[in-house]
Amino acid sequence: MGLSDKKYLSNNYAERIGKANVTSYCIKFKSISVIDLAVLEELIQNVSRQTGK
Fold this sequence. Notes:
Layout: H1 8-13, E1 21-22, E2 27-28, H2 37-51
Antiparallel strand pairs: 1-2
């Protein structure tokens, strides 16, 4: 993703996103139904702003 802080995803979203495995640059989940889509959308927007992508 190009994030300079390798713990950004886990520190900011692991508790809120739902049932998922959140690592440095990866979010793994078995089904979209277990994810809080509002939090996922927020995450994507924030990471896009930070990386310029």
